[in-house]
Design goal:
InterPro entries: ASCC2 (IPR052586), ASCC2_CUE (IPR041800), CUE (IPR003892), UBA-like_sf (IPR009060)
Shape: elongated
GO molecular function, one term: ubiquitin binding
Helix content: 40-55%
Oligomer: single chain
Radius of gyration: 58 Å
Distance between the termini: 157 Å
Largest sheet: 2 strands, antiparallel
Protein name: CUE domain-containing protein
Number of helices: 33
Pfam families: CUE
Structural class: mainly alpha
Strand order of the largest sheet: 1-2
């Protein structure tokens, strides 16, 4: 049985640094030749020999591992690009043409590194999709083994700083993004999701490590929306994350969780909403609503993971030819370093050496000293010089003014400005013009004209009369101030309000008259039968009370309250009695007079009452029986001391109802003596007696 020649795995970076360039080139040639044998083999031979090819998984795994890690020690020349292409073709043939590929060719690490090396390859996605259809069982078992390894590593302490754990999670993330079926296998069950959530909430988790975890779960959940769609599993996983984050709990902590980071930093909810809009589901819509509210609460804890867009600065590729001197401006220093040791070498030859050895002058010097240059470099002209830099040819633009001139607009004359002062007479202009003698003068225009001549002249009589009548017609008599000489409030009499005043004043006067009439009706009933205002149920149900309620248009509580307040106000009783007396003295059928009370307008200092309330001062009426006498006199103009009338009353006797008693009057009298310093004398006398300065007389 013919077997393929074995392939040696790619050495580690430490070993590669010790391999000379010639030996490394030989390794590349050997790998390309051996891969070519496998690719050029017939289908029958390939199926027989490839099934037992144990070296291909080791070679491909090592190559993809170092390439995906971005190892800078790997060369990037034409041979490296050719080897990269051959590796992809060999991998595709092994996984698609064989029903039972060699052990390790379907390993999840190899597939993950393969996706990292060719992330945007449509051929890779097609190949892996076909491989899933052919080897679903093997790939599924590898994914389950990967889940177990990742969960075990995450359970250890300081797993967030372990580079092996981070690389394994990244491999699974990229593999699930290229092959959604692998993402669906990752989301099968809840153990993997719970482990990721616990690792996210661990105290030692860094932000970079959390981003890796969120990316892995996001790719896995999004894969559930791809064919074949598994919406039920997606909703179950989201509900599990919601329960772990205690969303909606009364004592929910406001801290970043895996769910909050997932919905705030990605477009998972947008994708789910689009799918539910096409195929509505009540369970999913309710979940979306709750997650949206949770997203608003947690928005301040996260930011959206978005790749920064490259700003177009307008720096496109120049169409001018590249100048050699400008291109090798940095290399000229390296060229001079080599030429200092080998002055016979031309600058162009040294530049080719720098291009071949990646701008490493030490390596060039070593190969020149050992005379171990490759054949393609040895055949070059060592004295070749770079061409002299030429001035770049630019198509000069014609000089333009700064800023560029704009085409002058068509001149349109502006309209003539007009205002109300156009016809005014300019005195200065008149003084300079020849018409000044007819329009400008000092004193009377016609010194010979007299008043008699003006009165005798009837030529302008009609025009003047028409002007006067026109002015009178435009005069508005309402512009003058209203005459308030005979206002009701100042006169105190009954004036018909319909002749003047506004509607508001008429309404107010009508309401006042209505209130006075109701109060008169209530007081008459109070005087005739005080028991009618009793606060008991029998009185409220009586016929007289019902009649009084209809007449006064008041409720029982209002009537009883009015009687209670009236009993506490003797002055009000006196006023109502006076009103009844005046009504009785009026003519029959004339009705109540209802003359409004005029309050005095002169200033009077208020005096406190006995009970602490401010009552009428000494100058006001202290009762209805008091007269308007002088200094306490009983009648108008009297000057006695004991009267109860208006004025500064005498010592004894109360004026009338509502007059303060003797003790209160004496107290007020003592208080008023403060202006005459009597209290000062009394206090000094008390101090003297306290010192023993004198004996009581």
């Amino acid at each position: 049985m013919a077997e393929f020649p074995p392939l040696a795995p790619v050495p580690s970076p430490a070993v590669r640094r010790t391999i000379p360039s010639n030996d490394w080139e030989a390794c590349l040639d050997a790998w390309m030749a051996l891969l070519g044998i496998r690719l050029n083999a017939s289908d029958q031979r390939f199926k027989v020999a490839a099934a037992e090819d144990a070296s291909i998984p080791l070679f491909l795994g090592s190559y993809y591992q170092y390439t995906a890690a971005g190892d800078s020690s790997l060369p990037s020349g034409p041979k490296a690009r050719q080897l990269r292409k051959l590796c992809f073709l060999a991998t595709r043939r092994y996984i698609l043409d064989l029903s039972n590929p060699p052990d390790g060719i379907m390993d999840w690490r190899l597939l993950g590194d393969l996706c990292c090396c060719y992330p945007a390859s449509a051929a890779l996605k097609t190949s892996l999709s076909s491989a899933w259809d052919l080897h679903q069982g093997k790939i599924t078992s590898n994914i389950e083994r990967a889940k177990a390894i990742v969960m075990k590593n995450l359970s250890f302490a300081n797993s967030s700083s372990n580079p092996e754990v981070i690389s394994d999670i990244r491999r699974l993330t990229i593999l699930a993004s290229v092959l959604p079926a692998c993402g669906q296998e990752l989301m099968a069950g809840s153990d993997f999701l719970d482990t990721i959530s616990e690792a996210y909430q661990s105290k030692g988790a860094r932000d970079e490590f959390r981003k890796i975890l969120v990316a892995n779960i996001y790719v896995g959940l999004v894969s559930l929306l791809k064919e074949p769609v598994n919406l039920s599993a997606l909703l179950d996983q989201l509900f599990s994350l919601k329960a772990a984050a205690r969303v909606g709990a009364p004592k929910m902590k406001k801290e970043p969780t895996l769910l909050s980071d997932l919905i705030c930093s990605s477009d998972l909810l947008i994708r789910l909403e689009k799918y539910l809009n096409i195929q509505p589901q009540k369970r999913g819509q309710d979940l979306i609503a709750s997650l949206r509210s949770y997203q608003v609460e947690s928005k301040s804890l996260h930011h959206r993971y978005q790749r920064r867009k490259k700003v177009d600065k307008g720096k496109g590729v120049s169409s001018d030819p590249i100048v050699s001197g400008e291109l090798h401006a940095h290399k000229m220093s390296l060229v001079t370093q080599v030429q200092d040791l080998f002055p016979d070498l031309g600058s162009a030859f040294v530049v080719r050496l720098l291009d071949f050895y990646n701008d490493n002058p030490e390596t060039i010097v070593a190969h020149l000293l050992d005379d171990s240059l490759p054949l393609e470099l040895q055949s070059l002209d060592r004295s070749e010089q770079l061409p002299l830099p030429e001035e770049p040819h630019h198509s000069h633009l014609p000089p333009q003014p700064t800023p560029p001139t704009m085409p002058s607009p068509n001149f349109v004359p502006l309209p003539t400005r007009k205002n109300i002062f156009d016809k005014d007479v300019d005195i200065a202009e008149l003084s300079r013009s020849g018409e000044a003698q007819g329009k400008l003068h000092f004193g009377r225009a016609d010194a010979d004209q007299t008043a008699d001549a003006m009165l005798a002249d009837h030529s302008k009589h009609a025009a003047n009369k028409a002007a006067i009548l026109s002015a009178l017609a435009t005069f508005d008599s309402d512009d003058d101030e209203r005459d308030d000489t005979y206002d009701t409030a100042d006169v105190g009499g009954a004036i018909d309000g319909a002749t003047g005043g506004t509607d508001g004043e008429a309404d107010a006067a009508q309401r006042d008259r209505r209130a006075a009439d109701i109060e008169t009706v209530l007081f008459r009933a109070y005087k005739s039968n005080p028991g009618l205002f009793a606060r008991d149920s029998a009185t409220r149900r009586s016929q007289p009370r019902a009649l009084l309620k209809r007449e006064a248009e008041m409720t029982d509580e209002a009537i009883e309250g009015w009687a209670l307040m009236l009993s506490r106000d003797p002055k009000r009783i006196a006023k109502l009695e006076d009103r009844l007396a005046m009504d009785a003295g009026g003519s029959v059928g004339a009705g109540p007079l209802n003359q409004p009370e005029l309050r005095p307008t002169s200033y009077r200092r208020p005096q406190p009452r006995e009970d602490g309330d401010e009552g009428p001062d000494e100058g006001e009426f202290s009762g209805h029986a008091g007269s308007r006498g002088g200094r306490g006199g009983g009648g108008r103009g009297g000057r006695g001391r004991g009267g109860g009338g208006r004025g500064r009353g005498g010592r004894g006797g109360s004026g009338g109802q509502g007059q303060p008693d003797t003790a209160a009057s004496r107290q007020r009298k003592e208080e008023n003596k403060g202006s005459r310093a009597n209290h000062n004398r009394r206090q000094q006398h008390a101090k003297k007696m306290a010192r023993g300065g004198g004996l009581p007389g």
